[in-house]
Specification:
By secondary structure, the protein is mainly beta. The protein contains three helices and 13 strands, in the order ββββββββαβββββαα.
Amino acid sequence: MLKTKPPKKPINSYNISGTDITLRRGDCVLMRPAESDTPPYVARVERLVADDGNNEMMVRVRWYYRPEDTEVGRRVFHGEKEIFLSNDYDMQSTQTIQGKCVVHTLQQYLKLKYVGVDDYFCRYEYDAGERDPDVAAGERFTPKRVTVYCKCNNPYNPDTYMVQCDTCKSWYHPSCLDLKNEDVEKLDKFFCSRVCQEDAE
């Protein structure tokens, strides 16, 4: 008689043996990489599963990608702690989890008084499926459009210094105006152009 494999049992929470880490659905976690010089992978817990057949606790995760893991690579407007929620799912042993982290929205991230090593932010989702040669790499990101700033027309990077024009209220990178950050910081008022300066007088 053919033996059936014991079913996997979904559970609500799980404490990883030998740690103080309690996992729940929706938690964001750091997954141990194979190479010691590689930063930990980031994932979101979708489901906890007790695999009685192998006497092992498993977790179904949805991976976050770092900019350099995507087809377009890291761009100038990507923040140091920026990651993208992908449609790449996987089953992993809970023993590969080295800790929990927090993935904020960009708005939440900007309000942090202190950014810890386990703080990240996400403003895009990334389609990690098989590449369609007729679709541009940039089209893999959702939303397709976000607010852009400065003469460079790039999205906001929270790690890059910007200054607001006192007249037009637009934001600029000093370097895009051939200015140095330290010189701009000394100004009582900043004007992005001669026209804006004349309008303020």
